Amino acid sequence: MKNDDLLNEWRIAFKDDKTSLRKLAKLSNVDDDHPFFSKLFFDSKKIVSKIGLGYGKLNILTIKLIANSFANILLKKNVEKSHIDILVCSDGAIETKSFLKNISEVFSSKKIGITAFQSNVGYDKKFICRTVNKLELDAAIFIERSTYNDDIFNVRFIDNKGLDFEEEVIKLIKHEVEEYNVFEIKSTHAKIDYLSNSRVVNDYVEKILSLTSRKGDQRKIKIAVSDYNEGVTEILKKILGNMDFNYIINKNITNKISINQKSKRNEKTYINYFKKDIYFARKNKCGLLICPSKNGSELNLFVFNGRQVVYLDANEITLMFLNFFLIEMNIGNKKFKNFYIGTDIPPIKSIKNLINKYKLELIVSEDIKLPKDKYLLFYWNQNSQFIFGGNKITEFGFHHLMVRFLEMFNYYKTQRLNIVSQRNILIKMYGNYKTHVMILNHDLSELHSWLVNIKKSWMNEKYPISNIIMFENIKNFGENMIAKIILKNGVELFIKFNYLNRKVVIFVRIKGDDSKIWTKDYMVKNAYIKNLSSAIKKDIKKI
To answer: Burial level of 153, CB count in 10 A (0-12/13-18/19+)?
Structure first.
């Protein structure tokens, strides 16, 4: 079928959508290289795409194609089963609700059972994974907003154990997607088995509350929660209520874009971005403000010290919590030969110092499969997501962190200790490192030659490079750590690349004493950045 004929088919499919029809009407005589005919972007675990028109975007045609392909693979994998049940769900984004209906109709045409949450309420991935496993469903298809950009969505495929399907299965789904014609997908009216939200939420909350260790402490704080995700807030309310905390919910959410779209992320940026939430918390005399991300996977915390508001960054949360956690576990008086602490990124020096103090083993690995005969005390990743003790890792979830963090925060209050002061004491004890973030709009393909040129270009700078460490696992193409550059003055640069947006992302981590020099103007004008930018322009071909 010629491209113009295909476009006519698209116009027929969108005949009731005037906005889409106007866009389609502008397309004619386009060749195969036109963005409209690009393919859906798969990484090793999911589909990553924006909503829009075309074969490479999420829309009513491609979402049915995805559902059809997933269903075909499941049916082939479960030929011995007489019936398959799939959870169809999202993180609650309004843009995805029609997609859930499209997916259900395709599954229904293949006689696959469909389970969904009442009113299509959205939850975070951790909750979805546990629900699939707990209810013994065969799989789930889950649509969520990207952590880094509200305009980008992930389509995830979860197996009956509550884990992402292996890369081999994703490749099979990709092959099916590329083989089928979007106009030949069948669908029929779907009969959906709706879950009792309260039942599955209560079970989840009960599991999380089993982590509590200071149930008898008097509650001394009032907490504000910003309702950026209905399902996440529902779970938080039950946790706070069961823990007997005084809390108040802010439903007047006005932020339209994701904080992670901003090129500069520091305390001032976060405080300005959440200023209305902060005003709400301060007006209601709260000591702590909790702002979950819109997809429910990350947590933003603000504490109030009189008129002062302090944003706790990922490193500070990790340092404070790890210190409290290890003291509470009485690690110093126990021998934990087979116990360890893990992370997917080399931690800042202050956290290393803390771990060394307690003589614990630290394992740095992006592969979170646990070593044999090892017991995990604590694991965190580069996005400040946490997992607590066990011998099996499934998914990160901030609700688990919230239970333990609230107990820590409240304990300090009962002891008449200020959490900001406690943070400052720990920083003084173990060292202060700040993280700054830059995003450069350049492509990246030849990683090794690029980094070699970077090293050459920086050798004569005031702070020359002492080492470049390449990260081997670069197959998860959504946004992945590529390399760590260490300067002789102790500054660390973590180089990431976002394959979907074609952006280099640089995390600059420096000692607190030097943080003033890394202002926005300095980062733009400084020779490091100029050399980095010019090297990218010179050495990198477009993907």
So the answer is: buried
Distance CA 299, CA 397 (A): 10
Rounded distance, CA 4 to CA 448, Å? 42
- CA dihedral (43, 478, 312, 302) positive or negative: negative
Q: Give the separation between CA 182 and CA 212, rounded to whole angstroms.
A: 50
Structure tokens at 50: 């924006």
Cα–Cα dist 444/14, whole Å: 36
Give the Cα separation of 14 and 177 in Å (integer): 20
Closest CA to 142 of 151, 130, 154: 154
- Enclosing H/E stretch for 41: strand 41-42
β-pairing verdict for 113-117 and 192-195: parallel
Nearest-angstrom CA–CA distance, 54 and 306: 53
pLDDT of 472-526, one tens digit each? 444 333 455 666 777 666 667 777 665 555 556 666 666 554 444 444 444 444 4
Q: What's the CA dihedral at 272, 273, 274, 278 to 10 degrees?
A: 10
The yes-or-no verdict on residue 262 having pLDDT over 50 is no
Confidence of residue 532 (pLDDT cuts 50, 70, 90): very low
Please answer whether residues 85 and 115 qualify as being in contact, where contact means their C-beta atoms are separated by less than 8 angstroms. yes
**Residue where the block lists tokens 């209905």:** 230
Q: How far apart are CA 272 and CA 264, in angstroms?
A: 12
For residues 369 and 387, what is the distance between their CA atoms, to the nearest angstrom? Answer: 13
Tell me, yes or no, if the pTM score tops 0.85.
no
Q: Which of 75-79, 399-403, 490-494 has the lowest mean pLDDT?
A: 490-494
Residue 152 φ then ψ, to 5°: -110, 140
Strand, helix or coil for residue 139:
strand
Length of the chain, please?
543
Q: Compare 116 and 378 and report the one with higher pLDDT.
A: 116
**With b meaning 16 or more CB within 10 Å and e meaning fewer, what string describes 194-225?**
ebeeeebbeebbeebeeeeeeeebeebbebbb
Contact 151, 171 (CB under 8 A): no
Query: Cβ contacts of residue 496 below 8 Å, gap of 6+?
Result: 479, 480, 481, 482, 504, 505, 506, 507
Q: What is the DSSP string of 155-207?
A: EEEEETTSSBPPHHHHHHHHHHHHHS-GGG----PPPEEEE-HHHHHHHHHHH
SS (H, E, C) 386-402: EEEEECCCCCCCHHHHH
